[in-house]
Fold this sequence. Notes:
This protein is of the alpha+beta class.
Amino acid sequence: xxxxxxxxxxxxxxxxxxxxxxxxxxxxxxxxxxxxxxxxxxxxxxxxxxxxxxxxxxxxxxxxxxxxxxxxxxxxxxxxxxxxxxxxxxxxxxxxxxxxxxxxxxxxxxxxxxxxxxxxxxxxxxxxxxxxxxxxxxxxxxxxxxxxxxxxxxxxxxxxxxxxxx
Length: 166
């Protein structure tokens, strides 16, 4: 039986391990390790109440790390989502996003934001399917608005926005 629950700080090492394992099919071990650096412990120390974990009684099978903006009381942000490759394509990520939207709306948030790499066509398609709209960038790549150097030199991103209702 799968259970969706609030994340805990104690989930950090397991989630980092999941990222390194789950992305090993599309990245080198070094690249998967680097990807896991996007999830320092501080995200669960300060945003566990707004982050979610799906577990099956023995292990974490999916997670969403997100938070409500401290500077804007209408916005929330989805930072990182992972789903065990064995469960991909079964609506798990959609369920995580939906639960995040619901909790954010209950907290008075009306806008959710997320980013991804312009090369991550699967993520782009998923966000669009979930009702996100790409925000205007400073250039276009294959018809997609891109923010050049968003996360530093050579780290271009597609920025997404979605309205949610309270």
